[in-house]
TrEMBL record:
The keyword Metal-binding applies. Keywords: Iron, Iron-sulfur, Metal-binding, Pyridoxal phosphate, Transferase. The keyword Transferase applies. It comes from Actinomadura yumaensis. Its cofactor is pyridoxal 5'-phosphate. It catalyses: (sulfur carrier)-H + L-cysteine = (sulfur carrier)-SH + L-alanine. Belongs to the class-V pyridoxal-phosphate-dependent aminotransferase family. NifS/IscS subfamily. It holds the Pfam family Aminotran_5. This is Cysteine desulfurase family protein. Residues 4-359 form the Aminotransferase class V domain.
Amino acid sequence: MAGYLDAASTEPLHPAAREALLRALDGAWADPARLYGGARRARVRLDEARARVAGVLGVRPDEVAFTTSGTQAVQLAMLGSLRARRRVGRHLVVSAVEHSSVLHTAEAHERDGGSVTVVGVGRSGRVDPDEFAAALRPDTALACLQSANHEVGTVQPVAEAAEACRAARVPLLVDAAQSVGRMYVPDGWSFLAASAHKWGGPPGVGVLVIRKGTRWRSPLPDDEREGRRVPGFENVPGAVAAAAALEAYRSEMEGDAPRLSALVDRIRESVTRTVPDVEVVGDPVRRLPHLVTFSCLYVEGEALLTELDRLGFAVSSGSSCTADTLRPSHVLEAMGVITHGNVRVSLPRAVDSSDVERFLAVLPDAVARLRRTAGVGPA
């Protein structure tokens, strides 16, 4: 889709996923828990998919469970860890810029009598490793730190946080939804959550990794599926397609990430040069290769997104978790940057440089036109 620049929300279905999905719909639709031939074939395909995902993530296949989404993976990891470590304490540590799935679960934990420490970030959106380590206490049951921010692209100090958690004997959950397939996620964590549609897999498939030796107890009623970790009938075709997409996507990104990163650098440079009163946010160096966010003064973000859509470009507001509620982004607020007139551009795998150049050509006039219409802006 020409003009599609919202890969951080969802990556278009990878051709490898489409091919694998169609084959699995024909040959792997039976119940993998049964014993007849078709069911056994479905079980083989499910186990193969698990092993392929595990291979990319560098973990054991029996540590991988398929969920219905990245959000479900986050919630199961958090609630299950907090339940299993209740005797240790009820203290939870999260960063201020976590995905809403983490923060909403933290709010539920507080309502249930637990305590939460929120670690702030600097203006680039990055957590200070020393502050994160200082938040850990003897009664800390779990700590959460995303691998990279979903709104501004800043890469977080996961390796340093994992080392601090290991020293404090606190499990670490890493929400790696924006990183898996795009860049290496440092080791040392206890839980990892990801979502297949972020790497060109089908929607409705998430990944939850629970490392061996990590205390976890399902917060839901017992169910026999997915090693008693995720209830409900397994989406075998979806898992097969997700695994195929992840392998293909990871292979392509190893070579294509520098190209995408150069295009993002081009956007960062051009926007600040051609659009008055604009702020590009997020770390300019320690960042995801495909994502850039900027804020325009005197412009409403929703109006700018609508205008860009009219011109043929699909982008999103940086406030990706709250775009439909019109609330300011909690990420941008935590960073202390402009929270309105915000645009997140995230490049899909197949983006062409000409698409980026066309976007940069129409952006300045679009911003100026909205400012004139609103009767605001620089003199």
